[in-house]
Amino acid sequence: MPVSPANLILILLLCQLMGPAASGAQEELVGGIGGFVIFPLTHSQDRIDSIIWFFERTTLVTIQPATTNKSDTVIVTNRHNQERVAFSRGNYSLKLSKLSKNDSGAYVVEIHSSSLQKPITQKYGLRVYEHLSKPRITSGLQNNKNGTCVANLTCFLEWGGEDVTYSWNSLGMTSNESHNGSILPITWRQEEEDMAFICMARNPISSNSSNPIFARKLCEGVAGDLGSTMALRITLLLIVLVSLLILLTIWRLKVKGRAYNYSRGKFDKFSLFHSANAPKGGETSLTAHIARQINAIYL
Ligand SMILES: *[C@@H]1O[C@H](CO)[C@@H](O)[C@H](O)[C@H]1NC(C)=O
Ligand SMILES: *[C@@H]1O[C@H](CO)[C@@H](O)[C@H](O)[C@H]1NC(C)=O
Ligand SMILES: *[C@@H]1O[C@H](CO)[C@@H](O)[C@H](O)[C@H]1NC(C)=O
Ligand SMILES: *[C@@H]1O[C@H](CO)[C@@H](O)[C@H](O)[C@H]1NC(C)=O
Ligand SMILES: *[C@@H]1O[C@H](CO)[C@@H](O)[C@H](O)[C@H]1NC(C)=O
Ligand SMILES: *[C@@H]1O[C@H](CO)[C@@H](O)[C@H](O)[C@H]1NC(C)=O
Ligand SMILES: *[C@@H]1O[C@H](CO)[C@@H](O)[C@H](O)[C@H]1NC(C)=O
Ligand SMILES: *[C@@H]1O[C@H](CO)[C@@H](O)[C@H](O)[C@H]1NC(C)=O
Question: Per the UniProt entry, what are the Gene Ontology biological process annotations, in alphabetical order (predicted)?
Answer without folding.
Answer: T cell activation
